[in-house]
Amino acid sequence: MHQKLDRLEGLHVAIVGDVLHSRVARSLVQALALVGAHVTLVGPPTLVPKTLGVETSHEIDAIADADVVYVLRMQRERMEAAYVPSLREYTARWGITPERLRPGQVVMHPGPMNRGVEIDTRVADSDVSLIVDQVRAGLVVRMAVLYDLLTQGPVQVAVEEAVA
Questions:
Q1: Residue of 51, 59, 53 whose CA lies nearest to 16
Q2: Helix %, strand %, coil % for the chain, to 5?
Q3: Is the model's pTM score more than 0.70?
Q4: Considering only Cβ atoms within 10 Å of each terminal Cβ, which end of the chain, N or C, has fewer?
Q5: 32: buried, middle or exposed (CB in 10 Å: 19+, 13-18, 0-12)?
């Protein structure tokens, strides 16, 4: 976000989709609060908890003022009940399409995507999409963390050295 929009403070980020089952959404809400961004959670009432301390909306029009539209995957494997009547209805009401975006907005998605459900392929593959860069950066960060963990020895050694 910072690389593309040159700031984080004051950004308006709309997080759209299955917030209820998303670890990404919870950590993103906390991180964005730390840098002074404004967050709106958007999606079906059954998938947007009001307990995260940010603005919520059940209308897709709430993305209109956002600088960043951060789309979340519908996590069907975590859904034990009918959170939405059907994926077709979800797509019709909350799917991100070119018609729902305004000029100047950028789109992100942590992956994997359900193309044609939460995000239209025309958006995912467009010039407003930061998804490829986002996924690439995430991969590099995970590789660095794993490398650091695998080459630094057991955690007990690090703790003992820190105490000594």
A1: 59
A2: 45, 15, 40
A3: yes
A4: C
A5: buried
